[in-house]
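Worked Example 4.2. Consider the chain below.
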Amino acid sequence: MDPARPELATLVALLGVAGMVLAALTVVALRVVRPDDCPAYVRGRIRWWTAHNTAFLTASTLVAVAGLAALTIR
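Applying the procedure from the previous section yields the following structure tokens:
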């Protein structure tokens, strides 16, 4: 087994988990923030995250699972 493989798999898994945490925090933030009280450029970002958060969470979960799978496969 290549010595760099476990470190790379760990990095991939950690990046996936970090993306999942970011997606969860975004859900909380989107529920707390009132878009009418924000400037127009922030409202655009709120709309974008509202539309794409599910895809981001799914992609992050797949990255985390791929990293964990790479750690377990020898």
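The chain has one domain: 5-72. Helices lie at 5-32, 40-72. Compare this with Example 4.1 before moving on.
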